[in-house]
Give the backbone structure.
Amino acid sequence: MKLVVIFVFALLFPAQLLAQGERTQLAGPQVKTVTAAMLYEEAANYSSKKFQEFAQKKIEFNKNLLEQTLKEQRELSARNAATLAARTLSGDDLFYLGMLYNLAENGAASIDALKRYLVTKPSDAKRAQGARYILAQLAAKMKQFDEAERALSEYVKNEPQLASERFRMEDALARALLKEKQAERALAHADEAFKAARLVKPAAANSSNVDYSLYTSGTNLADILLQLKNTERAMAVLEELRQIALSIPSTRLYLDATERLATVLIDADRKPEAIRMLEESIKYVTTNVKEQKEQSGLLSALQYKMKQMQLRGELAPEILVTRWIDQKPVKLADLRGQVVLLDFWATWCGPCIAAFPYLKEWQEKYKERGLVIIGLTRYYGSGEGRDMLPDEEFAFLEKFKKEHQLPYGIAVAEGGENHNTYAVTGIPTAVLIDRQGKVRLVTTGTGSGNEAQIAATIEKLLQEQ
């Protein structure tokens, strides 16, 4: 009988009539209790069903709609978990209870239920492995590292196993341990995560997922090795990642790994090697990538990266500014003795807006120690979804800055000269300039550790004389 019918019966008759796992005699036909599996499936399928409905009704997708739907799914999961928890449970019911708590983002309750389920020595091997998979990740997230490692160890001892699941468990543990400054312990899991990622085949997942697993595990392993001062092995891991990208082949992965290795070489004061590697990469792409559009995109990205690398350690080129907002006109040369962060951004750029909280935090935390932030944008000829002349767009920028409470000055350029000078191919791009006026970091994007890298570099530069 459909869930909607059961819910109607629940309203019409006392709840105790619907005994757990049994058929209940009513005045009419028999009604079966909603099972644990049904409660879980209802919650698990909620968002996909809602978005199918939205598509059928031609309701336009947007971020708010997504957030609201996921919130409703969490709330439904919590209600269904409460319904299930009120029963006397054993066996698979405990598995579904743990999964419902997981959907509801109640990590502690999910861990408890899944541990109780595994104690029952379940006969369904696939379901037991699924419980260990979720348990390991949740425990890592909640800093219960011993519990996470136990679940992972049991997963490895049993079948069936998926390389993608092994990757996610090992990766979750590595990142959580690193966040708690346990780099040595994190290293073992980062190593295993990278090994597992290499076993995830394109046939088992789409290529973007394979690239993601390889890149995130490889770069995370390299980052841990760098923290442990093992620079040579970190570079070897990144070079291995480049070779894997060539063998797949994955041009996107090859480009990303090349850029990351170039950055590590520069940071290790091996700029000539970084430039030479980029030159060799450009030659390789020119010779071996036959598809014209793909070759053009790769060459452009590598050439821009080369330009960024050439800027590293050199005096920062002066910026061209047409008008300033909440900042007296200033040249970079006037700011020698201070650490300067140039934030290339635009009002229409979602990732740029996502970076604002970090920029505000750095402004408040480091301003008195000598950090100067300049938000660097340009006239794009539009704003608020319509065309604008420069004066109107400038007024819009003033209003935008006020609405987002940006506490640092904004520099507005006429065209894209600054973007070309600093080889900015995407925004947000952050450029960090040291007290001597030299470029020390150029990084693009939000997330994926960018903010942590920027914050660490700010600290480092502020400590330098």
Residues 323-463 form a domain with the Glutaredoxin fold (CATH 3.40.30.10).
